[in-house]
Amino acid sequence: MKSSIKLLIAVNVLAIALLGCSGKEEPKKEESHNEHSEVVKLSAESIKQIKLETETVSLQPFTGYLTIPAKVITNQDNEAQIGSLVQGRVHQVFVKVGDFVKAGQVLMTVEGLDVGEIKAGFLIAKAALDYAKANYERQKKLFDEKIGSQKSLLESQAEFEKALAEYKAEDKKIHSVGLSDEDVTDAKISEEHISGTLPIKSSINGIVVERNVVIGQLVDATTNAFKVINTSTVWVDGQIYEKDITKINQKTNAFFTSSTYMNEKFNGRIIYIGQTVDEQTRTITIRGEFENSNSKLKPQMFGELKIPVSGNAKAIMIPEEAVVKEAGQEYVFVQKSKTTPPSSGQEFEKRIVITGLSVDNRIEIKEGLKEGEKVASKGVFYLKSELKKEELEGDEH
Fold it and tell me: Percentage of the chain with pLDDT > 90?
């Protein structure tokens, strides 16, 4: 009996407690949000605490820089792949990676039967030409002195012209494999083996950045033995969005900056604007050429390419910090009422915008805002936090 009475009392107490909880009022929040909308309301006190500021949207002169991520690459006009044009074995190698070489400097020598045959063919043709030329000049002199016959003169002339044609053919052959006339004739004077070596020379001044051969290695025309680059000028490649393509021109001056060299600008000019748009990124390749006599800019170095954009055009420009970037979208907070007394607080609506170029910490708004509207320019992070808080609370309900 006593147990039943205790149980009844406990049930009554619990019921009273639950009734009290259900009747309890929630304290009013200082900031509130319209349900299912993207509006944040702030009290006058909150606006003061977070130091929120607004700016009236207006058209402003548009002059500044298009700034895009960019990468330094080798100027392909100053890059050379060097190798042997005939088959043979590497006899000597004279350079290593990092060496500076001059145009015409021998990087390695290659031994092979083809080399000897080419040299011999040239020497034979040259000797035949020298003989035919001397004979023709002698016969011409005799004919002029009324001593020699016209037949002998014509025969010597024909032999000379034949020898000259054969010499030119052999001369082209040695040049096609990278030999000069002096390479062959000097080798003969020094009594070097005619079956001897083919000097492989650098075609440009520059730095050896690749060496892919060792002594004794068999090489042919498909072997890239060395790569030499000259970085006295470099290219800088970047990607611009198609919407910005009309803002720049080829041969426009530009400059490049890198975190490697703080507060230093490298001057150049735009030399190429791509003709196709990347389907995935909707961007176009743009290329600048930059002087680099001090070799500070290295291929594959990252930085920013800045291209001047100017003219008489005007655009809506607002502080960059007024724009929130999130999940592939950009938005701002627009003040809803222009007439509401400051003492009653303010409402700010989330508004999706499309941005353009950035200029001196201000950003162009291409779509989403109109002249005369007010946007939050400071305190934006707090507005974003309040909006997110409401979204989370809405999800729980």
Answer: 51
